[in-house]
Amino acid sequence: RSPNGDVWTVMDETWLKWKVGAIDAKIEARLAAVAVPSDIVVVFRSLADYADHVHEVFTAAGIPHAGASSEALSGSPVVKALMAVLQVAADDWSYARLRAVLENNYFCPDWPEFAERTAVRDVAAQLRRWQLRGGRREILKRLHRAVQPPGDESGLSSARRKKREVERQSAATALSLLERFEALLEPLQASHTWRGWAETLVRIGRDIRLDPRSLPAAGGERDNDVRRRDLDAWLSLENLLYAAAAFDERLPGGGQKFDL
Length: 260
What we know:
There is one protein chain. The chain is mostly helical. Helix content is about 60%, strand content about 0%.
């Protein structure tokens, strides 16, 4: 809303793309008249739905802007990624949840076993090959068998022997990644105090590099904006977890261990 009462309501992102030029012209006219940018407000029914897109479009149009979103912490991609990892453990490595986590762009641990996501393709291929629908122990047991040295293959053609070797290498790569993933989740099987759970969840998040500070340098302004948003969410989550732990320790009878 401008000082003279004009109101511009943004209905959706398609409308925003089409109308931003007109908004830009109106803003320039109002600035010429009032010379106070903070007196101009563009109103959204739900900024949480469009905050990133608004920033992208207004920046591209050269419109200085500032805004605030009431997006809940639970809606942050980094928090969703951490919750998805916990759900894999809770569901005993169901096929759908395991693949969703490993293929999530926010899952990017600095592990040799991860091999810049090439190992994720091997995991998917092995799960399909052996028709494994879930079950941590069953998946790992099947892959252990798949990497065992072959028996007598003298009766096979060279092409067939080569294919089997490729399959064993794929199984070995998948097994290596999943064993590292199992080690990551192992602390979730124990009981902890609130502080213990806070430390465990933060450690898991940092191990898979949900904390943007552990990532390589961003590639551009858009990436930097996403990193800043993710860092705000990650730090908020850390503060929330440790604040809950501190509150628990001040309670009579606090500091008790419990399962997640």
